[in-house]
Amino acid sequence: MKAVQVVTPTGPADIEVREVDAPVPAAHDVLVEVHSVGVAFPDLLLSRGEYQFKPEPPFTLGVDFAGVVLDPGAAESSGFTVGQRVAGVNLNGGAAEVVANPAIFTFALPDALSYDEGAALPMNYLTALFALEERGGLRDRETVLVHGAAGGVGTATLQVAKGLGARTIAVVSTEEKAAFARAAGADEVVIGPDFKDAVKELTQGRGVDVVLDVVGGDAFTDSLRCLAELGRILVVGFAAGQGIPQVKVNRLLLGNTDVRGVGWGAYAMTRPGYMQKQWHRLAPMIEAGVIRPPIGATHDMADFGRALVDMDERRTLGKSVVRVR
Questions:
Q1: What's the CATH number of domain 124-265, 3.40.50.720, 3.10.560.10, 3.30.2290.10, 3.30.420.40?
Q2: Is the peptide bond before 58 cis (omega within 30 degrees of 0)?
Q3: How many percent of the chain have pLDDT more than 90?
Q4: For domain 2-121+293-323, is the CATH number 3.90.180.10?
Q5: How many C-beta atoms surround the C-beta of residue 250 within 10 A?
Q6: What pLDDT score was predicted for residue 240?
Q7: Any residues with CB less than 8 A from the CB of 94 and at least 6 apart, and which?
Q8: Which residues form the Enoyl reductase (ER) domain (predicted)?
Q9: Residue 179: pLDDT band by 50, 70, 90 thresholds?
Q10: Is the pLDDT of residue 75 over 60?
Q11: In 10 A of CB 176, how many CB atoms?
């Protein structure tokens, strides 16, 4: 079978589509025929050997995937059946024609969603839910400011925040990204790096309750200045590539504000059953149409590397997807 592999961790340009042996399911794995694979930031880091998880090359990329159950194996008691549509997530391995994935990291895909949308769901939307509920303590009718709001995690956060009853303000860099964020569900959109004054005006000077930051860099200090009393910044990543921001803790003291780290993968993967609970939490939002993952681009398997370059250069809108079938 074909798989998208890192042979040498020298970046996305050197990714190869190779013939590999079909997977042999372990106990409690589900064997899935993959139709679509989500392109994720960990894939980019893995291609360069920069991720905290460092598999031995050659290894297969692919964090998110969607497809059809070929064999539920020992996971049959969990309810999966042959032919069932599913989505799944793991540290890697999904970018192949067939994948064996743990049942606890595999989810029933609602009929309303395509395989492309299913491959866009797990990592980004479960991260957004973890960030807003577990780490952010988001309450009904609070206001959430989302940086990088036209990207995969950004659009997921806009939609999950809406599903949790929040008002959303998207921060983006271009008019094209502004239109994309609005279509994804943003209530308000601010364009450009000088967002602080516009956000203060939109909130009548009060500020926002939660900031979700996947960008980092120079925007971080102004994000602190945008917080309302008891506000929380949720640090998800540093896509700006400008180094890790420094926090002057006197700002936290004066405003009774918090900076909180968001590490969904390390938390969720060590707690059996946690992801399934999260998926069930998202299900009513999917059913109501609040969650509908926006797909920015689709690619063939051979173009997985090109999709990662687009992500690295911040050209990606929403979630990019690679179609296996």
A1: 3.40.50.720
A2: yes
A3: 88
A4: yes
A5: 8
A6: 53
A7: 34, 37, 38, 60, 61, 62, 63, 64, 65, 88, 101
A8: 11-322
A9: very high
A10: no
A11: 11
